[in-house]
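Hi, here's the filled form for the chain we discussed.

Project: internal
Contact: R.S.
Residues: 382
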Amino acid sequence: MLKTINIDKIVQSLYASIILNLIFLILKYDILVIINIIIFLTLLLIYLIFEEDYYIKLFIILLILISFGNITEAWDARSIWMLKAKIIFFENNVLNLKEYPLFSHPTYPTIAPAFAGSFAKLLGYWNEIFPRAGMTLLFIPPLIMLKRYFKGNYIYISYSVVLFIVGKQLFTGELDGLLSLYLFISLMIILNVIENKNINNFELITLFLNSVVLSLLKPEGTMLVFLMNLLVLILIIKKKCNSNLLLIIFLSALPSLCWTFYSYNHLAFYNINDTSYVFSSFHERYDNLENLITIFSYFITNNKFILSLGLILVALLNKKNKEINLYLIFFSLVYLFILVILYLSSIYELEWHLSSSFTRVIKPVTLSFCLFAVYSIKNQNG
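And the returned structure, exactly as it came back:
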């Protein structure tokens, strides 16, 4: 029945709606923002009505219901993302960054809080519940995309992995779980080229839309999209794909580049500094073995990361997907290396910064390792 309503167009329309929402807010077209949110909810309702798998339907419905029953406790969710959503709702201005408190990191991308704040516009007044549920709805497009790569019981396993790794971030308004799932979808589309040798128009368009949202979720998203450019460039050199893929990834990074350029220049005009990383900190720390041991200890004591690492190493035994997994490991190692550099460059006390953020920023690697391991098992068993 889902084929009748064209699930591919629904999922792409959901992605497009998220991006258009930010554009309409920047242009201050409130009526278009409200219409766009109604279209998003209508498309989601159509999907749920025609989705034949009752377990998936139940999973998504419960996800939404639970999001209505949570309070916003985490610092990032409360003091960065939901605060920005509230400012966007009341000020009706996404670009006036000097109005944002410095602790909310004005230079961080705003596609998620803009989407959340638009749900308050739909109601006509602000509350703490409905906008945060908007954050949860951002999970829907990549969750639907999982069905494209996992069939039968493996789709339930993949949803269980998302629930296990992302956990309460599905409901709390934090963005690291979103970042992780969007990254996986982009990587899955890119790395599948190795086996399939080509990529269809649906995957190209979805890769572009998914990567645009990924790059505008957090600064890490921008970095991950640029790393995907590096990955695709290597695939082109190895003659695994054509240059169209690189063009799509590069174009998807342009909105975040524009945002980064605008935000830093806008704040510099008002002599506002939103930088958390400086070279002087790196220079003081990089040759201190104790600092490196401290960072390494966080890697080896993160149980989910160690489990995911074990799973992907076991998946390497599957020759059919070995090349895909090797490229994934290369991509992840580069990302982790950059994380280490950033921690060494942090203006904050190292131990405090690690304890407050490491579990979150490692999620993209952890989730990708686990899901690609499941994908390898699926392919091995046919």
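Let me know if anything looks off before we file it.
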